[in-house]
Amino acid sequence: MPPVEVKIGARPENRPPVPPARSRASWHVRANAVVLAWLALTIVAALAQGELPAPRWLVVHVFLLGAISTAILIWSEHFATVLLRARTPEPPRGGVARLGALNAGTVAVLYGVAVGPWPVAAAGAALVVAAVTWHAVVLAGMVRRALPGRFGHVVGWYLAAAGALVAGGVLGGLLAAQPGGGALHERAQAAHAQANLLGWVGLTVLGTLFTLWPTVLRTRISELTRRWSRAALWLSVAGLAVTVAGLLPGLRWVAVAGLVTYAVAVAVALAPPVETLRRRRPHTAASWTLAAGVVWFEVALVAEVVVVATRPVERVAAGLEPLLPLILAGFAGQVLVGSLTHLLPAVLGGGPPRFKRNAALVERGWAYRLAATNLGVPLLALPVPGPLRLLGWALVLAPAAAFVVLAVTALARTVSAGTGPAGTGPAGTGPAASGAVGTGPARAAAVGTGPAASGADAGPPSDGRRSRVSPAHVGVLIGCLLTALAVVGAMSGAGGPARTRVAPGAEQTVEVTLRGMRVQPGVIEAEPGTVLTLKVVNADAQRHDLRLSTGERTPELAPGESAVLKLAPLAGPVDGWCTLAGHRAAGMTMRIVPTTAAAAAHSAQSSPPGGDHAHTPGARLDPAAPMPSGWKPFEAALAPAPSGAEHHVEIRVQETDLDVAPGVRQRMWTFNGTLPGPVLRGRVGDLFVVTFVNDGAMGHGVDFHAGALAPDEPMRTIDPGERLTYRFRAAHAGAWLYHCSTMPMSQHIANGMYGAVIIDPPGLPPVDREYVLVQGELYLGTPDARAAAVTEGRPDGWMFNGAVAGYRHAPLTAEAGERARIWVVTAGPGTGTAFHVVGAPFDTVYKEGAYLLREDDPGGAQVLDLAPAQGGFAELVFPEAGHYPFVDHHMRRAETGASGIFKVSAP
Amino acid sequence: MTWWSVVRFLHVLSAALWVGGQLTVSLVVLPLARRMLDTDRRADVLRAVGRRFGMFTGAVFLPVQLATGVAIAVHKGVTWASLAEPGYGRTLAAKLLLFCVVMAAAALHGWATGRRPGVARALAVISLVGSVGIVLLATALPAT
Q: What residues in B contact A479, CB-CB < 8 Å?
């Protein structure tokens, strides 16, 4: 085969250098600046996930639709121009307009889905599809005009990719326009994701690799390329089409067959690059990063086949979510970074010295960036504990941010140095410079220049290429890893087994250990009637004893001593504790529970022993005592419903230590770490898409009263680390409760798992102030004591928005003469409310979907009464400045916490 | 203020000297030595600094740290078995293991100095970062 010279990054030298290189380099500076800006925005979106309306969706789409699609548009046109030796200028005609249309469409999609009305998103999707269609038409035109060449087949991949995006984009637009829940929506979402990821991104990358990979490795193109490329293209397009066609109607095995075909096509397409690899090992930043990206693609593909094969099509979209980090950061991100590392210096021009400097710049520290990213990706994909996931985010985002900074610096340097041949210094003289990029870099970016290219003389500025690993950096890396390991070890097993279940039988012996201010096991469960014998061992360094509420007690045991207690046949719960001064308060308590009662107490199992550190048994609530200095009340002021008919929310179950009462901080089970969980607000007809993630230590679920749907799937209990998507349309106005749907619900709700959904009645008039109050019961003490109290319906206190008398310590503010609307939802689990504001009668009362009293009615109301899990609102006007208490007028509840104050100032 | 606070004070003070000393050498002395001294003098000075720091480690730091650490542990009723328990026990166990690793790295650093400069430098940094990690774990131990 004769050596064929094709150059990427340099115009063939026998053509006149018109238009001058200035336009080409400056086009690439501007176009790639857009890519980098999207990449930076992705990092910001990932960092700000807690603050965004649709966090996961936004991160995914800012990255794929913003950064990746823009890069595909720019670079596939660039490669097509170069590979087809097209006479078109760079950018090809209309390139700027296409780029503008794609970006405008992207912004519209992002805005429309996250905030605005759906037509904006749908129009954005249409614009994106139109831009890519135009792009495909331009490419097809180039192919038609081009002379037959060795590399035309690559453009076929780009055309197929564009076709996939048109299909995927149309599906995306439909998803945005018709946001109804249900099975069809889930299937369309799965198809949308596959078409865009495997098609638009995957096909483009595979096609590009045929020429880019040998270029990066600086070796000639594999002989296999042409024939294998054609086969792989047909196979992959067919596979993808079958996959999408199988997913849409829900034919699981058709989809699996399509995916397997696609996977085979990928294997075929990767054969030439792998063949190349046998000739030349990866040795540069770009080659290693690209290789890592492709490996993650394969891993993700295999995982995807497994996901699609093992669950109904409706659950595929949710099942693919854990794979997103692999595809986004592992595959797409690394391929983008790897390609830009290679291509940016080549197209930025400026002669060999500048090329060398730019290459050294974008490659700075690449080995660490590569290692960190590929360490971080599995941490994000696997169900690892919270701190490790955080580490994963840091490992993925930090290298990405570093690359953005380096690449932006390279672009800025090019701009400030001027991009024309005049700026090329010594290399800018003579005919060589007419190639605009100079021969050095041109050769470095050349495709398949035959054996010469792999020779030493064609070598790139290799001094800047190899990142020398400094011992200090290795030290930092190893030190940090060791520390991280130690921290994980230190945090492991929190909440280890502290409970023993005694098998049924007439007589049982249980060993009880006293150690470290704990009695282990903390709970013994036994069949009623069991005769228990406790062998009590003091394994601590100081003296302890054990006394039971039934009267048995051990003598004071020195370290290492033991004693035996024989109990009467078990009739009811028995408490045990150490009688030494202060030890009981420090947590040396235990409980023996008959199994019938134990079943109810079971849910307390996941609460770690000692989760109630601040509370001592027997302590009494003192609502008047000050709250701790760092305490912040839950925001009661209610913001108006966000615009847009679709609301994306992520709700995570978290076990959080909260100040629930003055001087009482205890471990609660929460939605998103607050009590109550996040308040959702919208209008009648709005769609809520809730991503529900269980970061807790046991199974949880969620039940939104505001939605009408079959509970089977969305309200199911999911295990720790799992997630589900809960989609409901708010068909009716009202103040609705949502709560954990896992049995026993009394325990889950009492532990804090509830929140409010506010759906405005049509025509709800605006008022000066709006507040939301969710009333719930508070149970204190050890998890087991709490569990028993919940079962018996003995709350220790009542809370508005998760704190006993919280708004007495941080009053809600208003001005005299203002109209306030107070939304109230009762969570219980066992009690409702008789909501009353002292000194300000209600002139409007709305309860459970209907007005009981309107402003212009002659009557007034003194109480908004709600049973557990009901909701409504009351409106009032504060007549003058002063302090207006608001209470649950069931006075025992008011006195144990269900009270707050409106502090009304003069206008 | 009891005698036990004095023991804890010594434990913390000696740790501060060790971690702070490493940080000062790495962040202050080394860069200045690189900039202001020629190669020979620099090697001499750094070797002397290293030897002095090693002597401090062996003669003061280790004895004080081990004695006070063991005393505090006994006082708190820590047993071998309790080291495996979640919470205080595991945090302390992780801290002790990391301490052993850091001491090993420091000792190997002394051995590698002059023989394998790159390895010596990496070991010094491991020791430094690991020491900071120990401080992190120490702050995570519940104070009682």
A: 125-130, 132-133
